[in-house]
Amino acid sequence: MQLNLANSANPVYRRRLWQHRVGIALSIFAMAIGISFLLWILAVLVINGFGAIDVAIFTQTTPAPGSDGGGLLNPIIGSLLMVGVATLISTPVGIFAGIYLAEYGQESRFAQLTRFVTDIMLSAPSIVIGLFVYALYVANVKHFSGWAGSFAIALIAIPVVVRTTDNMLGLVPNSLREAAFALGAPRWKVATLVRLRAVKAGVVTGILLAVARIAGETAPLLFTALNNQFYSADMNRPMANLPVVIFQFAMSPYDNWRELAWGGALLITFSVLGLNILSRLLVKTSKQ
After folding, report:
1. Structural domain boundaries in the chain
2. Secondary structure (3-state) at 7
3. At a CB cut-off of 8 Å and minimum separation 6, what does 35 contact?
4. What is the longest distance spanned by two Cα atoms in the chain?
5. Which of 7-21, 85-99, 195-209, 264-278 has the lowest mean pLDDT?
6. Which whole-number Å values give the CA distances from 208 to 106, 115, 183, in the listed order?
7. Is the pTM of this model over 0.70?
8. What local confidence, expressed as pLDDT, does residue 287 receive?
9. Angle CA 45–59–274, to nearest 5
10. With respect to CATH, is domain 55-287 assigned 3.40.50.1010?
């Protein structure tokens, strides 16, 4: 009790206490502003997009200009195909690169260069990656395609998986690695069967976050997959996808197109939200 009274009479203590209170208040105020804008965006999205969600949006293709009705079957299928292929490409590449960085990151200059390039790719604008794939692939084959779109968004997903895997493996206690080495396990088995297995939930979380990151990308697909008004599962041809269709329909003069754009935006938003919730549940489960 006497110590508390002495602290309250100390001017330095009182000044620091007020600084702490002001900092907490400003932090709560900033958080409230951010949450308010987020809730505002979600409310507008739900109000405008919920009316477009019906059976037709999943069973009919995009309508022609001036026609009524229509749906988003072809862009939904196109997005699922391209995101699926990109995930199949980025997952093994990102995991093995992350394992390499975690195991040899302090011993090899090439590993340090890889980590540096990965950090650059994480912050690179997606439109630059789209232009890169366009110049490297689309310009040479002379046509847009779903493969080009998958390669572009895979390049966006790979650094996310790499950094997540690298960080997760760094959390494994050294005692676990030393115990595996003491039993005579080779280094590659320690990395894959011991360290990776110990943090598999975190690695899966990184993969889900990468999928959520690429699900709504528009700029790279404008230069690679472009669009297709008709249903097509041919990955070697221009392919419809939700982000580009939303971009085009939102600026159109047709009411049903704009309504479909709101519906597509709602689908992507709640898909990404679901992936983020699932990733957090996996992290929570792994900590228990």
Report:
1. 2-52, 55-287
2. helix
3. none
4. 82
5. 7-21
6. 28, 21, 34
7. yes
8. 61
9. 40
10. no
